[in-house]
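Lecture 7 notes. Example A: sequence first, then its structure tokens.
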Amino acid sequence: MRVAVSVREDAPATVIEERFGRAPYFAVGDPVAPAAVEFVANPGAVAATGAGTGAAQLLVNLDVEVLITGQVGPNALEMLAEAGVQLYRAPALPLADVFEKYRAGQLPALGVQRF
């Protein structure tokens, strides 16, 4: 399973970045084997507009199945949901703790609300 976590740095000791579209990096890998995580730079982090949708497209292109982040804007949220990406919310915790909470089923789901 490919899981992406929005993070502040491209290092194993990094902390989650709560702003999805402006996250400098995504840690992408299998939460069961976090030592094999790949850090991918987010080009949307410095975009003038469309940061969230640009980041969402990046993750869709990487075949990510699960995203763990803090908050996601409505356009990116809908785009990810339509691509079948499961979304979970986590506070600013170290990456290892985020993976641990995910494996334990302790992260709340994020979802698209339709009116």
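Example B, a different protein, same format:
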Amino acid sequence: MKQVEKTISYWEYSDDNELSSEDLNLLQKAESAIDGAYAPYSAYHVGAAVLLENGEIISGNNQENVAYPSGLCAERVALFYASSKFPEVPVKTIAITAKAKDFIIDKPVTPCGSCRQVMAESENRFHNKLRLVMKGETGKIFIIEGVNNILPLMFHADELKKK
């Protein structure tokens, strides 16, 4: 038996001023998307914006439902809408941010496991690494190159193939 370690890598920015104009614009689109979130149960409003390789930006926000599994995260709303509108265009970058009703989110908002797996599928489908730009209401910003840095032991289609 042996212990195996896997490390992740990400960029940490102090504030918006350190971002490229492309990343800042995408993050602002994600912040604007927060306003359309439907979150009456958690009061945690999430916005996401997806930049496609063709330059299009698609936004989404979380949509809750009293039957919790029936809701959908902002990231998947944006990714699925982008895929339905531009099925052959790869995703370049996704920006994610959030606001809460009763507290300030001062750490970068990271995607849930289901969203991470959907992002991994996008990478595998188009054979390109996705960039993630993550921010809270205040504080630092994380930028991650590649879903493997947030989902190091992701599920792959190869595991479905029978021999």
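Note on Example B: The CA atoms of residues 28 and 55 lie 16 Å apart. The first helix runs from residue 21 to 33.
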